Structure formats: C-alpha cells, structure tokens
Input
Amino acid sequence: MAKKTVKDINVKGKKVLIRVDFNVPMKDGIITDENRIVEALPTIKYVLEKGGRAIVFSHLGRVKDDADRAKNSLEPVAKRLSEHLNQKVNFVPFTRGIELETAVNALKDGEVLMFENTRFEDIKGKKESNNDPELGKYWASLGDLFVNDAFGTAHRDAASNVGIAAHIKSTVAGFLLEKEINFIGGTLENPARPFVAILGGAKVSDKIEVIQNLLKIADKVLIGGGMAFTFFKAMGYEVGKSLLEVDKVELAKELLKEANGKIELGNDVFTGKAFDPETERNIRPIDQIPADELGLDIGPNTIQIFKSYIENAKTVVWNGPLGVFEFAKFAEGTKSVALAIASIKDQATTIIGGGDSAAAVIQFGLSDGFTHISTGGGASLEYLEGKVLPGIACVDDK
Ligand code: ADP
Ligand code: MG
Output
C-alpha cells in the first residue's frame, strides 16, 4: 500500500514533528560517523524550505539510568545538524515540560529546534521503548503534523513513532523512510526477474525468517558465510571447526528440501587453521574440509558460480557477508560478489540490507555500485523477513 510522504502535506506555518534516526556512533562525546545526520537532511530541509516549523527528535543509544544520560545526550548532534543546515538549531535539553513547550511555541516559520534523546524517558519505566500511551500523546500535542523518517527504528513500537502517530491527525513518511519503503518493500512485492537473493553472515539462527521469506519470493538463493556450514552439514559433509549450529541442522535439511534446488551453496571454501587474520589460507572442496580447519570464506569456484547467477539477475537483494571480510585474507568472496553486483548496476535493482554487509561494501569503496544500501540493520532484517514494521504501518496510506 502506498504511503503518504512529506510531499503530500502542507507544512507552511505548521509545527512539524520530525522523528529522525540520529542514533550515531559516538566516542567521548565525538560523533565518529555522521552518515545518519546527512541522510536526514533532505527531509528537514524540505520542511524548512516550505515554511514549516521543525521539531526534530531521535533516540541515541540505550539509557537505563542517570549515568547513561551524560554520554547519550543529543546536544553534540544538534550542533552538527546546525552546521549542516547552516542555521541555528535551538537545542532543548529536556524531553518534556514547560521549557520545551515554550521553545516549541516560540518557533517561527523556517526555524528548527531539537529536543533531548527520547530514551531519557526510559529511565523511569521504559516509557519511550514500551510506547507508553501518555508519552506518545504528550509529544503529539506539541505539533500539528508528524513526519516519520526513522527507518532504523521502524521495527520498534515506540512512543516517538507509533505512539505519536496514534494521537495526531496526519502522519507521513520522510524521504529516507520513503526510499526504504520503495526499495525494500517495493522490490519484495514486485521484483523484476530473475531475482537473486544472497545470504551470508554468521549464523543461520539470526536469519531463518529471512531465508524462509526470500525462498518464497526469489528465483535463486545463494548462501555463504558462516551459516553455510550448517547447510553443508545437513547435506552430509564434515565441516571441521567451521561455525556450526548443531541444533539447526534439521531445520537446514527442511529448508533445502523446501527449496527444491533454489538454494545454491557452491562447492568449495577458503579455510584456515584458526580464526585469525594471519592464518594460512587453503582452498578446500566442501567434501574435503580437514577436521582441524574452519571455513572462513566462499571458495574460488563458488565465487564463479555465484557470479554466474548475479550476471543475469534483474534484482539482487543481499544480506550478510560471505566470509570473514574483516580479515583481508578472507574478504575475497564478499568483495568479488560486491564487484559482480556493481557490474550489473545498469540492468538491475541491487539492494543491500544488513549492517555488516553495508559496512563491507562501504569499506571496499563500492557503495556507488548499488541501487540502495539500507540504513537500518535490525529494521532491514525484519523488513526482509516480510514483517510489517510498526514504524511504517503507522504512516497514513495515500
Ligand atoms: P549483517 O549485519 O550484514 O546482517 P551478520 O551480522 O549476520 O551480517 O554477519 C556478519 C558477520 O558474519 C561478520 O562479522 C563476518 O565476519 C561473519 N562471518 C562471515 N562468514 C563467516 C564464517 N565463514 N565464519 C565465521 N563468521 C563469518
Ligand atoms: Mg550484523
């Protein structure tokens, strides 16, 4: 179902609540990666340019007690936002109360304020994270309209997304949320074919529902990474010291049966003797993994097999690195597949959903080679599982 976006509402003179995802990594009060701030700018700028009064807010980290407050204040983020917007951002160091209300009511058209970390409300009773109805209602009362642009928390039912939406007359998506809905939601609903899904990462248990959902939709599911070894075991191979989830072998058998040939695991792996960046690298056919070695990357033949499917694809969805790409020796599979996907950019829709897979592609300098790199880790995973995300469901339909 198509969702309303910020372009469908008139924001002029309106107090516009904008929920962004400013959950940026910080070290000693310094922001170490400001991508999430940059990603939120189009929506905020749009509201300001159209004469709206922007009330911007987000969560940051986890806040259990007063000691967590100091290191999780959004004040440094407000400062960076102000520099990016090239205008004053009035930072209000509270999440409610007279000072916040006064600042909101003093806003003029085209001005912006930001209030403190929504999770400060978690200290007494998890009000934000458990979507306390009184809190959502209170925040909703501060504005006229609600723009949700926080994809990173769309899989959570919080007061600052779902709670506000329940108490305000209009909830729309910001540009970032719209992009995620179109690319992930739109692609899963109606993919151009052949549709190749690529799944990797550490554990089968993290990705069961993603595998199940993509098996339903994709034409081919390529599986690598640590999770492949549970499948190899299910096929009767010995996997040495490779990552293995013994309690998931039966499930892997069932998935292989259900998949009816749709799953492709390749036929060789790069192994080492230890989980160590300096360990010697060997190529092993999957039926010859020595007992004292562990698989750390997909092998060269497997890379070729995976490439042959990617070359003809019209849609590629990728979640999870195919090897321990953090070790230079075992990054080849992940990098080769990233390059193969980048090479079909002009003929296919190519999407990455997954925190580590996105990090890998950015580390290889290949992010321009993809149609869409999702900004959500947990949220993109749940979206790929085919779940309805509460932070999207609460946005008004067109
Ligand atoms: P994402 O965040 O993209 O969803 P995951 O969190 O599921 O991905 O998995 C990423 C991790 O999987 C990486 O840290 C990587 O080192 C690890 N991994 C990949 N292949 C293997 C392997 N063969 N053995 C152990 N760990 C692996
Ligand atoms: Mg991860």
About this structure: The pocket of magnesium ion (ligand 2) is lined by residues 355-356 (CB under 6 Å). Residues 183-384 form a domain with the Rossmann fold fold (CATH 3.40.50.1260). The chain has two domains: 6-176, 183-384.
